[in-house]
Each structure stands twice: as C-alpha cells, then as structure tokens.
Amino acid sequence: MLDFQKIHARAAKRKGGEAVLAPLLGPAPDNKAVAKVPDDRILSTMAERIFAAGFVWRVIEQKWPGFEEAFLGFEPKRLLFQPDDFWHELASDSRIVRNPQKIKSVRDNAAFVDRVSKEHGSFGKFIAGWPADDQVGLTAYLAKHGSRLGGNTGQYFLRWLEWDTFVVSADMAAALRDAGLDITENPTSKRDLDKIQAQINRWSAETGLPRRHISRILAMSIGENRSAEALREYMGD
C-alpha cells in the first residue's frame, strides 16, 4: 500500500497547500459527544439525510424548518401516536418534499429510534458506545434495522452526527484502489467494505488522524480537483 503521507501531500498540493486543505477536513469528531444528542435530533438527522439522498442538498436544507414543523419536531414518541391520516396528509404538505416512501421512512425510523432508545437509554448513547473501528458493523446495523439507511445514506447520517465516519465516495474508493487496495470500482460488498475498514483503521493508528480526515484526504487526492469553495458547499461546512 502507498504510504499515507504521500497521499496527504498529493491532496495538499492539489488544493494549494496544507493551509487550504486543513480547514476542508473539518473538526475532529468526538464519538462520545454523540451520547448527548437527543432522540428528536437523531431522527431529524436521519430524515434529513434520507430526503437529501438523490436530491440537491441545499434545497432540503433551506426547506428544513418546514420539515421540522410538519413532522412535529421529530419527537419519536409523539410521531408514533399519530393516526394514519396524519401520515397520508403529509403526502400533500407543501412544507416538505412530498415523497411517500421517504415520508413512510420517518414513521418507521421513529419506531426504530424509540426501540433502541428504550434498550440503551438513548439512541445517541447506543451510537456513542459502538466501537470506533467498526463503522462497517454499525452501518450494517442501521441498514438492517432502520428504514432507507443503507449505503452512503447511513454513512452520511453518522457523519452529520459528528461520529468519526469515513464515506465511501467514488473518489475515495478510486484513491484506495490507486494506493493498492484490492477492491472493486464500486465497493459495496461486505468483503470490500471490510478491507476498507481495515485499511482506514491502519492509517488512523499510524497517523493519529480521525477516520473522517483520512476519508476526506483520500477523496481530495484524486479525481476532479474541485475548488475549496465548491467542496465546502457540497460538504455542508
């Protein structure tokens, strides 16, 4: 495998130097701090990433106050008490993006969050207690037990919570392949994801960098060389 310092140096050179690259990495995540995130903010973040998938993120972000109103502040218990008519009416509510399948996912995930919260004290405590070196296991759990939380949506959900998350974007995967990791071009299988997890863990141990930073450095080291401004807009920073 290519030494990570060389990948880091390449990313910095492409962005115009370390002083430009460093702010693009974002703050160092604090997994333990996720324990303090209340269940309504967990469900809100889930819903935002689900509605943003395949959509223009900025549009969802601008409409989000309307989503908060329409979905009763994303309080899981309150949502679970709502009758079927409440959910049917949301399909014609102009405050939100009226996608019936994604609306249904909020109802399903309210039950998911409530169930996990009862078992662990809160959903945030459950996430915070998951081993930092097993993101693949955590995202598999979210995909299996939650609604529409598979693939990159689950990864972005964790990142938006400030859990130390790598995101397997096309550029990130290309950089791993270029560095010598034997994975497919579209690495979605458990075999490939386990390889990615192991390599990210090794680099994190060697460099002391958070997995989030390693992921972003990889993505910025290859492919289209987007400007710092464009990247900040895309990443929501």
Automatic annotation (TrEMBL):
Pfam families: Adenine_glyco. This is DNA-3-methyladenine glycosylase I. It comes from the Bacteria. Coiled coil: none annotated.
